[in-house]
Recover the amino acids of this structure.
């Protein structure tokens, strides 16, 4: 009977989407700027229909009026994340090694577990710190010099993601 209740809960947790994973955009046109665009739909290769969650309204924007497009938020810097993981693992190894020296009277298996858990814990902590603190802004895409076909193809690729 317990499995009957736990399976739907696990299924819901596994397939529910966190709000922080949703991508939002800022679109600047020749006449206005839309800041919190949650969805973009292409209409007959002539216009895009966007939903602005800040204003809670939908707008239809002709594609040739779109000047810039920027993804909101920041993304982790991969190099800093890698360095943070390595540095955290190294620091965790040192802490585990010092703890193992203190525990010399114990069995060697316990000492090995302490060193490995220190290494793993430090690497996980370094990864989290490196990926959350050191972030870069997403690139702004300038549409002003693009042809209409190139704009349409790019917007199609965003809509299909």
């Amino acid at each position: 009977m317990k499995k009957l209740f736990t399976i739907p809960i696990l299924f819901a947790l596994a397939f529910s989407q966190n709000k922080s994973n949703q991508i939002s955009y800022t679109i600047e046109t020749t006449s206005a700027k839309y800041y919190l665009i949650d969805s973009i739909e292409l209409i007959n290769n002539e216009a895009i229909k966007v939903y602005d969650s800040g204003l809670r309204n939908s707008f239809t924007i002709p594609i040739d009026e779109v000047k810039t497009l920027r993804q909101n938020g920041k993304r982790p810097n991969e190099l800093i994340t890698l360095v943070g993981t390595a540095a955290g693992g190294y620091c965790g190894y040192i802490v585990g090694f010092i703890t193992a020296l203190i525990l010399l009277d114990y069995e060697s298996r316990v000492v090995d577990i302490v060193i490995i858990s220190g290494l793993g814990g430090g690497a996980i902590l370094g990864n989290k710190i490196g990926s959350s603190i050191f972030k870069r802004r997403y690139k702004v895409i300038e549409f002003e010099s693009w042809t209409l076909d190139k704009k349409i193809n790019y917007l199609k690729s965003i809509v299909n993601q």
The longest helix spans residues 108-133.
